[in-house]
């Protein structure tokens, strides 16, 4: 078996923009526009970028919940986009999702038992009908909930507990990969660490690989083995934890890192903070060349003409992939 469980190449999702009574297509929102990466068994890949850069769309593409506009996706050696019917259903067993908002992603009219057991209705061969209640109780216990609460409803639980319910549903089918789409963003800071710890515990026990989506680099640092930074539908830098946090080479990553609130007040205003100016351009009409050139303090003429490839570039110690013509490491406090 290969060490790579998921390989995306040139993934694209363009949404048509329709206008007028004839609903003519007048353009496309390039939500994901050529994203390539691989995910190894049992690892956590963090995906970070500002709101609207295409993270959730990427997650839905990986789940085969969206019709891709282009690119390919290999899941465990199988061409995911070529699967249909029963084959697609089997593939979907192995890749699950946990959503951001535990308040809206759980059906308020269903009991916890039927929410967590729902995957068994879709994949009836996984657990025999007469064993399902027991299995659901095991899952509740696994995620730190009281198995006796199986008949309660979502509103009887706190936000953190509801996210545990969502996680129990996510692991019910023993998947290989779980996409966590901002799973702690809606939770109180005090509860976030508990949910992250639970995800880490499950990863160790069940050998799961995670794609952990967040809009903030600080959230994914602790949990990620590697991190990919997205900007306007593209991956602009990807590397291991040390490479991204200690020697980022892409100006956008450096700006995101310097935007993290500084714990030490004496360092504030020390001139090392990089302020991002200007709004994020529209993904319907991305800038030419390097998409970041309209906001980049290092931009030169070539940047608006030539699109920099995401390729290994020196970072002071070795090299890691970065999409900048002038990539150079910079220590950001
Ligand atoms: N179903 C859709 N139809 C049209 N545009 C969409 C759709 N889903 C997302 N978009 C657009 O695609 C871009 C990326 O969205 P999204 O993937 O949700 O970003 P993120 O999760 O990073 O905030 C946004 O401009 C968003 O408005
Ligand atoms: S290629 Fe140019 S505009 Fe793009 S990030 Fe690098 S320096 Fe900035
Ligand atoms: Mg999103």
From TrEMBL:
Family indicated by similarity: Belongs to the ABC transporter superfamily.
Record InterPro entries: AAA+_ATPase, ABC_transp_ATP-bind, ABC_transporter-like_ATP-bd, ABC_transporter-like_CS, Oligopep_ABC_C, P-loop_NTPase
PANTHER family on file: D,D-DIPEPTIDE TRANSPORT ATP-BINDING PROTEIN DDPF-RELATED, TRANSPORT ATP-BINDING PROTEIN
Gene Ontology terms, MF aspect: ATP binding; ATP hydrolysis activity
Pfam family, one: oligo_HPY
Protein's name in the database: Oligopeptide transport system ATP-binding protein
NCBIfam families referenced in this protein's UniProt entry, alphabetically: oligo_HPY (TIGR01727), PRK11308.1 (NF008453)
Matching SUPFAM superfamilies: P-loop containing nucleoside triphosphate hydrolases
Keywords: ATP-binding, Nucleotide-binding, Transport
Keyword Disulfide bond: no
ABC transporter domain residues: 17-257
Domain of life: Bacteria
Gene Ontology biological-process annotations: peptide transport; transmembrane transport
